[in-house]
Specification:
- This protein has 251 residues and is an alpha/beta fold.
- Strands 5-4-3-2-7-6 form a six-stranded mixed beta sheet, sandwiched between helices.
- Strand 3, helix 2 and strand 4 form a beta-alpha-beta unit.
- Helix 2 runs parallel beside helix 3.
- The longest helix has 22 residues.
Length: 251
């Protein structure tokens, strides 16, 4: 991982988070150590029928949960465990995510030559089990027998930022790309002055634009997010715009 990725990951306690997001019905146990929040993103290898994750693809890495300050460590760990295989990453994110870390995840994926997509991984062994029991099955990292479900799956701004790091990027026709706004939060010191907040919003916004340009994604996406931040609004990006904005890559 290059120095650019490290800079993206270690920019201190101030983070950007989606102002609105879909939440799970119940929180999972914390995945990390002390201070790790519930619902933090986990990664595990999954296996399905041939073609489950694309043409000739039967194996993928599931990424599910909320992008938090320590998420990058788990991504590096799961990638290192694949013995050189470049399994595609299938994203299912929710909650108020750390967008600065989401950019860092995208850079890691790009540096490793990983393809990205979006969808819900449904683990066969989790059938009829509660969230906590299912989490116990997923936490070791798999591989687990599973299917992919992209029916009306939401891809928020955190999802888009991670997706952007993929060498090849794809979204299923049932996916809904929904962009909300951003806000500055500090998990260590919640009181951030308006002046500092405004300055950091500008700095992070420009860093995100640099990242999207480097990944070949149109920065119009962030113009939409900026408007949504001001208006406390959400915008759904239709499939007809996915290729135009280079959210997805060509065949």
């Amino acid at each position: 991982m290059g120095t650019a990725s490290l800079r993206a990951l270690f920019l201190g306690g101030l983070v950007l988070a989606t102002t609105t997001a879909s939440a799970q019905t119940s929180a999972r146990p914390p995945v990390g150590g002390f201070g790790s929040p519930p619902d933090a993103m986990i990664f595990y290898a999954a296996h399905g029928a041939e073609g489950s994750c694309g043409a000739g693809c039967a194996n993928w890495i599931a990424a599910e949960g909320t992008v938090q300050w320590d998420t990058y460590k788990r991504l590096i760990n799961i990638l290192d465990r694949q013995g050189g295989r470049k399994l595609p990453l299938v994203i299912h994110s929710w909650g108020e995510s750390n967008l600065n870390v989401a950019v860092g995840l995208g850079r890691i994926l790009h540096d490793r030559g990983i393809d990205t997509s979006e969808g819900t991984t449904e683990v066969a062994a989790c059938k009829d089990k509660g969230d906590a029991d299912c989490f116990v099955l997923k936490r070791p990292g798999g591989p687990l027998e599973a299917t992919l479900n992209a029916s009306k799956a939401p891809c928020d701004i955190a999802c888009v930022l991670i997706l952007a790091g993929g060498i090849h990027r794809s979204l299923h026709t049932g996916t809904r790309v929904i962009l909300t706004g951003m806000a500055i939060h500090n998990r260590l010191a919640p009181n951030v002055s308006d002046e500092h907040r405004e300055s950091l919003t500008t700095i992070y916004g420009e860093q995100f634009r640099v990242y999207l340009r480097e990944m070949g994604v149109d920065t119009e996406l962030l113009d939409i997010v900026d408007r949504n931040s001001e208006q406390r609004h959400a915008t759904e990006v239709p499939p007809s715009d996915w290729t135009r904005l280079h959210i997805v890559t060509g065949p």
